[in-house]
Structures are given as structure tokens and as C-alpha cells.
Design brief:
13 helices; 331 residues; 5-stranded parallel β-sheet; alpha/beta; 4-stranded parallel β-sheet
């Protein structure tokens, strides 16, 4: 059956079928080839898009803006609205829906992006919340398909670190949808929510995916095709560095962990930004307070032939373009 995503919001990939996710990945690949061929796009001609940010951003903002511009769209970057202060989310959504063809939101609460989608009357795209990060996962799966010589449903992926954050949740659920072997490798008190794990396993029973959780690094990474990690302290949790470092110091992605996979071609992925050296103010502060020169990944691994993090970052643009084109464009 043909896939039609016109008018659809993207709040979490759990709301999309495997066929719809496959459509977006295939469209992303086509749009990437189109851009690299220098073909000017018009899929978003005449479309107005507003992007709203409660949380800071490099990749999400630039990817949405560039993706829209590439296909003829126009973008408003909105950071100083009255939303949630003098005007409710519902009222803001109803106003913006009169002005714009699509709305992106990046912030803290999943309830905020869901409220925008309920009331705007136009597609709303989740650029990140504390619960889900769907556009990142599309970029991740496109990158895996480009770098791992297997179909997605044969790929084994280990997510190492804080497995109950938005990336752990999102990778686990999307892996269930697309048939991957997913392993969450983390201290047991940082495992994903039990209800989410149960939901992922129900989906996996239909798709052939496997969902495993372990606190044993060597068991978790053995035989995998991809090791994925994220920062140990998410935005809004900056007062928890000491706690997370103590919990996660044995889960740092380093060369020994790559060797433990037994796969000489294992790929390393990270949604970025990454604390792999001392070239950031946060990295230097952590060095001063805790004596670490890197946190979730060593500089050696980050810069190694195993690392595909910058291809992954580029693919944010191509996959976001596909999401917008599919929901409000003329493709």
C-alpha cells in the first residue's frame, strides 16, 4: 500500500509503522543524492515553517533551516515568544497554525510538543524532548545503512551509557519497529522505563527485533555492528555530573570496548555534542573537578576510522528534509 504522510506530525517514531519509517529513509536517501548532484529543490516552495527552541541547538536548528531553504521553504526562528508565559501553549499553537504550514519544537516536556500538535492544525515535528528524539533516529538509521553492509533487520546495536534518556528510549523503540537487535548497556538504575521496554518487546515480537538490557559491558557489546553513546548528563541535569560520572565511568566507549565487540569493522555513533577532549569549557571544568580528560567516549575512538559521527550529523539535514517534504511538501 502506498505511504501517505501528508498532514502528519512526527512526535515519536513509535507512532509510525515500519513501512512509514522505511519510506522516510528512502526519501532521505533520494534527497541526499539530489543535493549532492547540485539540483535545486522546490518541494517546499511557498511553505512557511516556524522552529521553536527551549533548548540550545546546533544540528537541529541548522538542519531544519538548511533543509527548508534547499527546497524553497521559508523559516522563522522563534525564541522570544510568549508561549507558556503570557500565552498558553494551546493559544500559541492556534495562532502559529494560522501563519505557518509546519512547526518544529525542541524543548523539555513531551507534553508541550503534543499540545502544539493537538491544537495547531498543521504538522508539528519533534526536534527533541526529554522523552523522544525522532529526527535523530532517522539520521542514525540512514547512517547505519550507509556504513554497515547489512539490512537494518540484521544489524546489532549496543547503546552504552544512560539508557533511560531520550536517545535510549528512541533507539530502543525504533529498533523494535525496524527489526534490529538492540542492547541497552547501562547500570540497572539507568535502564529504560519498564513500560517502554514492555511496549518495545511487544512490537519486536511482530518485527523480529530483539530487545536486551544488561549492565555487563563485555556481554552487551559482543558481536555488535554499532556502538552508540550519548552524553552522561542531559540538558537540564547539569547539577548531576558527580553522580553520573560515578555511575557511568566504566561505560566509557574506548578502544578496549571496541576490541570487546570482536568486530574489526564496528562503527561508533554519537548524536553530538560529545565530551571527547578538553576543547570545551564544560570539558575543562570536568577535568578540573573530576580529573577526566574525556567522558562518554575517548578522543582516540571519536577520531578513529570506526567513527561515523559527522556523516551521522550531516544526515540530520537530509532526514529532516524528508520529514518536512513528506508532511507538507509536494513530493
Amino acid at each position: 500500500m502506498p505511504v501517505n504522510l501528508k498532514g502528519r506530525s512526527l512526535l515519536a517514531l513509535k507512532d509510525y509503522s515500519p513501512e512509514e519509517i522505511r519510506y522516510l529513509l528512502d526519501l532521505s536517501r533520494d534527497l541526499k543524492a539530489k543535493k549532492r548532484s547540485g539540483i535545486r529543490g522546490n518541494l517546499l516552495d511557498g511553505k512557511n515553517i516556524v522552529i521553536i527552541f527551549e533548548k540550545t541547538s546546533t544540528r537541529t536548528r541548522c538542519a531544519f533551516e538548511t533543509a527548508a531553504f534547499d527546497e524553497g521553504g521559508r523559516v522563522t526562528f522563534l525564541t522570544n515568544s510568549q508561549m507558556g508565559a503570557k500565552e498558553s501553549i494551546e493559544d500559541t499553537a492556534k495562532v502559529l497554525g494560522r501563519y505557518y504550514d509546519g512547526i518544529e519544537f525542541r524543548g523539555f516536556k513531551q507534553e508541550t510538543v503534543e499540545s502544539l500538535a493537538e491544537h495547531a492544525g498543521v504538522p508539528v515535528w519533534n526536534g527533541l524532548t526529554d522523552m523522544w528524539h525522532p529526527t535523530q533516529i532517522l539520521a542514525d538509521f540512514l547512517t547505519i545503512e550507509e556504513h554497515v553492509a547489512k539490512p537494518l533487520n540484521k544489524v546489532k546495536l549496543a547503546y552504552v551509557g544512560d539508557a533511560r534518556n531520550n536517545m535510549g528510549n528512541s533507539l530502543m523503540m525504533a529498533a523494535a519497529k525496524m527489526g534490529l537487535g538492540f542492547r541497552g548497556v547501562a547500570p540497572s538504575n539507568l535502564f529504560p522505563n519498564d513500560e517502554l521496554v514492555a511496549e518495545a518487546r511487544r512490537i519486536a515480537a511482530d518485527t523480529g527485533a530483539t530487545i536486551e538490557l544488561t549492565d555487563d559491558v563485555n556481554v552487551g557489546v559482543k558481536g555488535v555492528d554499532v556502538i552508540y553513546t550519548d552524553v552522561w548528563v542531559s540538558m537540564g541535569e547539569e547539577d548531576r555530573f558527580a553522580e553520573r560520572i560515578e555511575l557511568l565511568k566504566n561505560y566509557q566507549v574506548n578502544q578496549a570496548m571496541l576490541d570487546a565487540t570482536g568486530n574489526p569493522d564496528v562503527k561508533f555513533m554519537h548524536c553530538l555534542p560529545a565530551f571527547h577532549d578538553l576543547e570545551t569549557s564544560v570539558g575543562r571544568k570536568v577535568k578540573e573537578e573530576f580529573g577526566l580528560v574525556a567522558m562518554e567516549v575517548t578522543d582516540e575512538v571519536f577520531r578513529s576510522r570506526h567513527s561515523v559521527v559527522f556523516d551521522e550529523a550531516e544526515n540530520r539535514m537530509h532526514t529532516i528534509k524528508a520529514v518536512m517534504a513528506a508532511s507538507i511538501g509536494s513530493c
